[in-house]
């Protein structure tokens, strides 16, 4: 099963897409691990690592870095205020 990742506001602009779906990689079981996995892609995804006060929701509920993530979940990343990621 897959996980769906949504990007909002400036993050959507930075990564060039509003959503993607993929199989959850082995060893990725929390929001923090998913965040690190995505940021490690480099390029546009580095915006995930450099955005201050990044907000994250799992299945439309605000989440912390230690919140579990499993196949079938929807994970949304967004900056606290809309606008361009710098």
Structure notes:
The protein is α+β, with helices and mostly antiparallel strands. It has a domain at 33-61. 23% of the residues lie in helices and 26% in strands. The chain contains 3 helices and 5 strands; from the N terminus they run βαβααβββ. The protein has helices at residues 9-15, 31-39, 47-50; strands at residues 2-7, 19-23, 55-58, 61-62, 74-78. Strands 2-1-5-3-4 form a 5-stranded mixed sheet. Strand 3 (55-58) and strand 4 (61-62) form a beta hairpin. The protein starts with a strand and ends in an 8-residue tail after the last strand.
Helix and strand arrangement:
Elements: E1 2-7, H1 9-15, E2 19-23, H2 31-39, H3 47-50, E3 55-58, E4 61-62, E5 74-78
Parallel strand pairs: 1-5
Antiparallel strand pairs: 1-2, 3-4, 3-5
Tally the helices: what do you get? 3
Looking across the biggest beta sheet, what order are the strands in? 2-1-5-3-4
Largest sheet: 5 strands, mixed
Portion of residues in beta strands equals 25-35%
The backbone outline, from C-alpha atoms, is globular
Q: Please, what is the oligomeric state? A: single chain
- Intertermini distance: 33 Å
- Topology as a string of helices (H) and strands (E): EHEHHEEE
Q: Provide the residue-averaged pLDDT.
A: 89
Q: Provide the helix percentage.
A: 10-25%
Low-pLDDT stretches are: none
Number of strands: 5
Radius of gyration: 12 Å
* Secondary-structure-derived class: alpha+beta
């Amino acid at each position: 099963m897959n996980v769906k990742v949504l990007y909002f506001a400036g993050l959507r602009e930075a990564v060039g897409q509003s959503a993607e779906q993929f199989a959850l990689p082995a060893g990725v079981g929390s929001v923090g691990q998913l965040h690190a996995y995505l940021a490690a892609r480099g390029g546009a995804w580095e915006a995930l690592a450099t955005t201050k006060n990044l907000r994250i929701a799992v299945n439309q509920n605000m989440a912390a870095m230690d919140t579990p993530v499993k196949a079938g979940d929807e994970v949304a990343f967004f900056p606290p205020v809309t606008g361009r990621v710098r």
